[in-house]
Amino acid sequence: MTADAPLILTLNGGSSSIKFAVFEAGGSLRLLLRGALERIGLPGAALRVKGLVRGDTFSRPVAATDHGMAVGLLMDWIEERIGRDALKAVGHRVVQGGPKYSEPARITAEMIEELRRLSPVDPEHLPEEILLTEAFHHRFHDLPQVACFDTAFHHDLPRVARLLPIPRRYEAQGVRRYGFHGLSYEFLMGELARLAGAEAAQGRIILAHLGSGASLAAVRGGKSIDTSMGFTPAAGVPMGTRSGDLDPGLVGYLARTEAMSAKQFAEMANLRSGLLGVSETSSDVRDLLDRETQDVRAAEAVALFCYQVKKWIGAFAAALGGLDTLVFAGGIGEKAPAVRARICSGLGFLGIELEEERNAANAGVISVPASRLTVRVIRTNEERVIAETVCRVLGVGMTLKGEVCGHATK
């Protein structure tokens, strides 16, 4: 692949996947391709690439027994198809920035050591994210890398919203409510301002990022004032395999009755709970909607998810002192009209009323014209936020009329 402008690679490492995208950074930011290494460490591991402007579109099996092997395969493919010289920077989604990192920053040895210290907070993501940064540093030693922290959007939560009701000494250790999905929320707020105007983006807003990981955020005056996830991404609403909020007494009960260790409890709450745990069949809402008329477990899993999201919307409307805009995003939020309808059913007292045909079509605005507030569906784009952030932090790309990579400089 050859390019007339610098290329930026974005990486999003998960527990069993590495998602990536390549952007061309010129006068505006252009997505060239996206892909993923999927099912790392599992049977059927594959490299999938979709070329959007030029290049390959393919899916092929790969031998990726662990993340080290997977990132090696990815770097091999990047060298072959993109080339060392064309690639100018790498941007990483880093789930947890802790109390220290409230802004994106170039990755340094000092930052990596701090992320290692934070790894016990999020053992599902941080070790793999550290591995990705180190692997690229060893292969492409002079290539600058930027960390984009998912917690940054919520870093300045009001104190009452970030305090945990546990002994105060733990706060000094960084134990607080952090919130996540910040890159998605940053994109959604930018899109809301573009679509509805700056005044709407300064209003009382609930953002619902609903996917295999799910959370909600309450935003007022453009700032996060509360969010459903807490110290870890396991808190809040039920998700694909995560439990969401649980009674802490359950830890002691299972330790006594099943000799369950802390590690086993964390694995259960993160990997075998949520939609999968309740349905006993699938973590995917699409599967559960297909089965719900024949399988009461699937029906109950969907009902529990919708009920809990509805409760958080009501709670955040109270925290905001009212509601002007509700935004659905994420795989479920963007593509599951039945789930949106069930969540919004009964919320007419808040002014939420959906227009059935527009909701069924996944339209941009799905509330009735006469509704007191606007309900929107916005397709989120974390990769673009990462690429734009790299441009801003490193000054990559051309500067035209006060813009870098197509967005106003800050």
State the gist of this model.
Helix content is 37%, strand content 20%. It is an alpha+beta fold and 410 residues long.
What report would you give on this structure?
- The chain is of the alpha+beta class and 410 residues long.
- The protein folds into two domains: 7-149 and 383-408, ATPase, nucleotide binding domain (Nucleotidyltransferase, domain 5); 182-377, ATPase, nucleotide binding domain (Nucleotidyltransferase, domain 5), CATH 3.30.420.
- Helix content is 37%, strand content 20%.
- It is built from 15 helices and 16 strands.
- The chain has helices at residues 67-81, 109-118, 126-139, 159-162, 182-196, 198-201, 249-258, 262-271, 274-279, 285-291, 296-320, 330-335, 337-344, 356-360, 382-394, and strands at residues 7-13, 18-25, 29-38, 46-51, 58-61, 87-94, 105-106, 145-149, 204-210, 214-220, 223-227, 325-329, 374-377, 399-400, 403-404, 407-408.
- The strands form three sheets. Strands 5-4-3-2-1-6-8-7 form an eight-stranded mixed β-sheet, with helices on both faces. The chain has a five-stranded mixed β-sheet with strand order 11-10-9-12-13, sandwiched between helices.
- α1 packs across α3, α10 crosses α11 (296-320) and α11 (296-320) packs across α13.
- The radius of gyration is 21 Å and the shape is globular.
- It starts with 6 loop residues before the first strand and ends with a strand.
Instruction: Report the sheet-strand fraction.
Output: 15-25%
Computed structural class = alpha+beta
CATH H-level homologous superfamily name of the largest domain: ATPase, nucleotide binding domain
Report the top-level CATH class of the largest domain: Alpha Beta
Main β-sheet, spatial strand arrangement: 5-4-3-2-1-6-8-7
- Mean pLDDT equals 92
Strand tally is 16
Main sheet: strands, sense, barrel: 8 strands, mixed
CATH overall fold name of the largest domain: Nucleotidyltransferase, domain 5
Number of domains: 2
Which CATH-level-2 architecture of the largest domain? 2-Layer Sandwich
Shape: globular
Low-confidence stretches: 398-410
Distance between the ends: 32 Å
Task: Report the total helices.
Answer: 15
Helix proportion:
25-40%
Radius of gyration over C-alpha positions, nearest whole angstrom? 21 Å
